[in-house]
Structure formats: C-alpha cells, structure tokens
C-alpha cells in the first residue's frame, strides 16, 4: 500500500526542506550582492584612474607654451609625472589609488625601472593595508610587489610574497569573496 508518515515527521521534513531552500537562496543572494558591490567599486575605481590619467595628459598640454610642444614629452616623463602625482596626491577612493599604483608599477617594469616599480608596489601595499589587509586590494598589491621583487632578482623575497599572496587568495576564496584561486597565483604570478 501507500506509505504515510506521521504528521510531525512530515511537517519536520517539509520545514527542513523549506529552511534549506531558503538558506541556499539567501546565500546566493548574498553572493550576487557582493558581486554587484564589487562591480560598482571596480567601475568607480576605473573611472577615477581614467580621470587621473586624463589629468596627467591635460596638465602636460597646459604646461607648455606652444601646444605642439606637448607632443615632445616622452612617455617616461609622463609616467614619472603620473607616479609623482599618485605618490603625493590623495584620491577620492583608496581602492582607485591601489589600482593606479599597481598599474604604474607594471608600467615601470615595462620600461625596466625596477626601483620605481618597487616604490609603486610598496605604496600600493601601504594603501591596501588601510582599506583591508585581508582584501582583494592587498592581494593585487602583493602580486605587483612579488613580481617587482622577482624582476629585481630578489627571488627569496619574491617567493615569500608569492606565498603570502596565495594564502590570502585561499582565505578570500574560502570566505566566498572570490570564486577560486587563480592558477596564476598558484604559480606565483602577479595577476588576480
């Protein structure tokens, strides 16, 4: 025949199923909220970095007597001016400042100015520490710092920083702040 269950057991099972379903739904909603918040922060940071870089080029155009002379400024001079401004000026968003400093650090590595790349990475670390020493900005700053150390032939220090970054990324993944630890981090590379 047809099996029936006692009313309290059926009710308990139904309540448990609804509770589990509700818990999963709330967890998914929380993840989507975090993703949306992160996307807004990234967009705001990208806009701030873009405005900063535009101000560097605009200032270069205004600093010369003849507009055509603005084109004679080298990329390295513009990079140095941007780095000086980023080092001394505060930005509306510390997150945007970290992004800018990381970008400048990578640009300095591209032109083989490793001491300046390290300085940008150190400033990014300092700024990230004021935001959240256990956050994504810190992981990104550790990435540029480790790569700059490695390029500077400071491999023992670079390896230590890569391990610190990997451990941080693993904690962020466990906390649900990132989906997974990127393979580049597992290999000790800088990208998040």
Structural notes for this entry:
With 192 residues, this protein is an all-alpha fold. Helices cover 76% and strands 0% of the residues. The protein contains seven helices and no strands. The protein has helices spanning 7-63, 75-88, 94-110, 114-131, 136-151, 155-174, 183-186. Helix 2 packs antiparallel against helix 3 and helix 4 (114-131) runs antiparallel to helix 5. The N and C termini lie far apart (59 Å). 27% of the residues are buried. The model has no long low-confidence stretch (mean pLDDT 76).
Gap from first CA to last CA:
59 Å
Number of H- or I-type helical stretches: 7
- The global form is flat
Helix content: over 70%
- Mean pLDDT equals 76
Question: In oligomeric terms, what are we looking at?
Answer: single chain
Overall radius of gyration:
24 Å
Series of H and E elements: HHHHHHH
Question: How do the strands and helices of this protein lay out in sequence?
Answer:
Elements: H1 7-63, H2 75-88, H3 94-110, H4 114-131, H5 136-151, H6 155-174, H7 183-186
Helix pairs in contact: 1-3, 2-3, 3-4, 3-5, 4-5, 5-6
């Amino acid at each position: 025949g047809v099996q029936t269950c006692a009313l309290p057991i059926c009710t308990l099972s139904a309540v448990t199923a609804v509770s589990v379903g509700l818990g999963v739904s709330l967890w998914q909603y929380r993840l989507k909220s975090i993703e949306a918040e992160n996307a807004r922060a990234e967009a705001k940071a990208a806009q701030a970095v873009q405005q900063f870089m535009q101000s560097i080029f605009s200032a270069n155009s205004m600093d010369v007597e003849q507009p055509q002379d603005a084109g004679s400024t080298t990329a390295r001079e513009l990079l140095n001016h941007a780095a000086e401004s980023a080092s001394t000026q505060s930005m509306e968003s510390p997150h945007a400042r970290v992004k800018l400093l990381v970008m400048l650090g990578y640009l300095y590595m591209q032109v083989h100015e490793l001491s300046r790349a390290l300085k940008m990475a150190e400033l990014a670390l300092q700024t990230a520490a004021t935001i959240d020493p256990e956050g994504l900005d810190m992981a990104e700053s550790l990435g540029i710092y480790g790569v700059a150390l490695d390029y500077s032939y400071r491999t023992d220090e670079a390896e230590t920083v890569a391990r610190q970054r990997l451990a941080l990324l693993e904690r962020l993944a466990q906390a649900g702040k990132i989906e997974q630890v990127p393979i580049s981090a597992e290999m000790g590379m800088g990208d998040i």
